[in-house]
Amino acid sequence: MEGTIITTGLGGTGQQFGVPTFVNKIIRAIGGYIWFSEREGAMTQTWAATSRQIVEEGIHGRYLVPVTGWTGSYTYSRVEKLKEMAMDEEVAKKLWELSEKAVDGALKGAGGNNAVDDGSGN
Description:
Shape: flat
Distance between the termini: 28 Å
Strand content: 5-15%
Oligomer: single chain
Number of helices: 5
């Protein structure tokens, strides 16, 4: 098999899970009032990828969020102020190490190679 396609299933109809078509239509009708459209959902990522503000202000390693207006529709994106815990270097290091171990274990369990580069060249 060449290539891999990964999907979240967010754009599906639910039929793959046995959801009747009429339920999908109801959910999509209601969702149009309370959820972002596909276009609105991509706006923060698009802003992050194309905004001069990101480069000019040296924004990196930050949490970007969409902001909604009174109707619940996307208005603009902004940089979210992080909580102290999110900026703790020791917590970040522990989380990174835990994540490396989890990924490494999952790959070994699946018969893959060690995903963690320890700098040894092995």
